[in-house]
Structure formats: C-alpha cells, structure tokens
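Human: If only I could read backbone structure tokens as easily as an amino acid sequence. Take your time, and here it is.
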Amino acid sequence: MERRASKKKLSKHLLEMKFMKRTREKTELQDEEEIRAQMFDSEVTPAMRVEGDRFVLESSYVPIENLRFGRLSFKGMNPEIETIMLEDASREEAARPEKIDVSDQEMAERFSNLVGTIDKKFTQKRDLEGKRLPSGSRGT
C-alpha cells in the first residue's frame, strides 16, 4: 500500500459503473497482491524470489507413481471404459520409442563368432595326424 499511497484512487461509485468493470477488477487484483506480499514478506526471502520455481506441484500422485488408468473393463462389460483404455494404450505405445539395440550386421557377426565358440566346445582333442588324444595327456 505504501507505494500506491501517493497514487489517487478512483471512487467506489465510479468503479461500480459498467464501463469501469475491467479497471475495478484490475485494482482489486492489485490490492489482493499487495496484501499477499505483506503477509508473506517475512517468510519469502529474496533468494527464494530469485531462484524461482524449483518444485512442481501435482494434484494427483498417479503420474508420479506411473499408475494405469483407474477403471478397467473386460469383455464388453463397459464399452466406454474399454474405449478409454484402448486410447490410453495407444497413447502409451506411441510415446514409447522403438529401440534397436543391435543392428543386423552386428547380430550376424556375433552369431558367427558364437557358432565357432560352441563348435570348439564340442570338438574332441586330436593330434596333428587326426588321432584322438587320451583325456589325461596333451599334445605338443
């Protein structure tokens, strides 16, 4: 109020006239804002004003917990709910990006290496002439 004390106010009767409706609303908002500022001036620090909004207020905990739509319907019991469920599922499907972790070329190379590794596992040890070695001895 101190900064507007020097500014003259319009009379109450003038503000009640039809053509002054917007001006009246604007002055009421300014008055309410000044009252709020005076009430919370001791609680709100300048650092809080500079920093801005650090917190997001959510009225429901559903998006925070990643919960599904609250009502479910199956086998045509409630067609309206089923259409809402289908729309929700299609929205989620569209929002989910398709990921390709491994390209086809990398998969082919990996598979060929894997085939060779498994083949080595099941082959039996043989010497240079192709004869089987006894299980306890090693060839040179």
In short: Residues 72 and 78 are 8 Å apart (CA to CA). DSSP finds six helices and no strands in the chain.
